[in-house]
Amino acid sequence: MDLIANLSLGFGVAFTPVNLMYAFIGCLLGTLIGVLPGIGPLATIAMLLPATYALPPVSALIMLAGIYYGAQYGGSTTAILVNLPGESSSVVTVIDGYQMARQGRAGPALAAAGLGSFFAGCVGTLILAAFAVPLTEVAFKFGPAEYFSLMILGLIGAVVLASGSLLKAVGMILLGLLLGLVGTDVNSGVARFSMDIPELTDGIGFIVIGMGLFGYGEIISNLGKHESERKVFTANVTGLLPTMKDFKRLVPAVLRGTALGSMLGILPGGGAVMAAFAAYTIEKKTKLHAGEVPFGKGNIRGVAAPEAANNAASQTSFIPLLTLGIPPNAVMALMVGAMTIHNIQPGPQVMTSNPELFWGLIASMWIGNAMLIVLNLPLIGIWIKLLTVPYRWLYPAIVLFCAIGVYSTNNNTFDIWMVAIFGVIGYLFIKLGAEPAPLLLGFILGPMMEENLRRALLLSRGDWSVFLTRGLSASLLAVAALLLVIVLLPAVKRKREETFVED
Question: Which residues contact 135 (CB under 8 A, 6 or more apart)?
Fold first, then answer.
């Protein structure tokens, strides 16, 4: 009954004209930036953070959340029609979605992505509402040792679920942890690894790294592609409704993707990108039906499952943020920034001190998911028109907006140079087949890990066994060790490498 009372409070907050307007703006912007290749929610939320100063806290968070899960919807449009992932979590959708478009089945592919996303988004929000209260109670039992162990689990989860080589994924996480050390030591106040550059004494901003690796890196990579690789299948988008045979195949795929995305979104280190890859992995391992198109050749399951997974994960990734105060991915880290702008400390106390914000945000996600169906499927023609704009015109506009976004956060030209450097590094990572998502996660969680490690050792007077003697901490470390052992088994390792090969 408490849940119904809390949700009625949330819907009362979300259904005000102002909050409905900001939910719509967030969903519209999210879809727009999801459709546009090279600019993701990270860059957009970073650009809009200064604009949220003047907004009420609830409206600001509703809009930013709308941008995040709206981008998951919009990213599939570009992936299917242009062979470019509009958003990093749509990378997997490209494989089968674009092949469907080439076969004249762009309509069913877009419908599968949209309906799968809507169902998963609603389920993810329901899980968020159901688990928020019990998890908040658990969160109060978390001490520094438990937080440290949880983050270790998150990072190992990121390694396990990253695409490509295990060694590269570990290397990227370690690089992220090292970059997180740059700045001023919290305890001693001494500048570390700043190389006598005054701007680096505050550390490297995650907006800088995020925009550089994902925004600029992606743009440089896209510019290297021939114009013919970006052919938009505009004429072929007819008959949005999938056939009965399609429905029979995509419904189980959507259910599997939703379940997987909901679990991975909760994990620190999980998130939409990991969920999409993992869902595609499972579908690839599931036996093909008689007469079914192979994966990589236009299989509808290869579109529906990753899209359902990334949307479910984007909703449930709010759980660790709102209950534990730990951002599971880079976008959630920006949400932490938005909350601190409004003097709200993310963590278990949010529910008790700001119930209107907590439940209003959850309720707005249902409204947002309904808005996104209306924005995506009926208005598909508008998004196609947008995609026909030559990339040579889009590219400078995206570069300019990213530069404005970076500059506006700190009013510092040094940040723009840093973004340019990380853009080149991001491009090199793409060429080397190294996934930047684990690096960004290592960078976000690194300083928090260090802080909790030091605090735990300070409280235990330097006794390292504190991580094993506390039950909850030991359990989390045991799960992390088990995950690592499983993924290092030769059979699992071999199958994993096979899975992430794009046919």
Answer: 319, 323, 324
- Which tens digits make up the pLDDT trace of 363-421? 888 888 888 888 777 777 777 777 677 767 777 877 787 777 677 767 788 888 988 89
**Angstrom distances, CA of residue 101 to CA of 106, 123, 303, 372, 469:** 4, 28, 11, 22, 56
Q: What is the number of structural domains in the chain?
A: 1
Instruction: Write down the pTM of the prediction.
Output: 0.73
153 CB neighbour count, 10 Å cutoff: 21
Q: How many Å apart are CA 218 and CA 227, to the nearest integer?
A: 16
Q: Give the 3-state secondary structure of 273-285.
A: HHHHHHHHHHHHH
The sign of the dihedral angle between the CA atoms of 256, 257, 260, 266 is negative
DSSP 224-274: TS-GGGG----TT----SPPHHHHHHHHHHHHHHHHHHHHHHHSTT--HHH
DSSP 493: H
Q: Looking at residue 272, what is its pLDDT?
A: 72
Strand partners, 192: 183
Cβ atoms of 39 and 402 within 8 Å: the answer is yes
Question: Is the distance from CB of 309 to CB of 100 less than 8 angstroms?
Answer: no
Residue 317 has pLDDT above 50, yes or no: yes
pLDDT of residue 494: 65
- Three-class secondary structure assignment of 413-430: HHHHHHHHHHHHHHHHHH
Range of the domain at 217: 2-499
CB of 442 closer than 8 Å to CB of 172:
yes
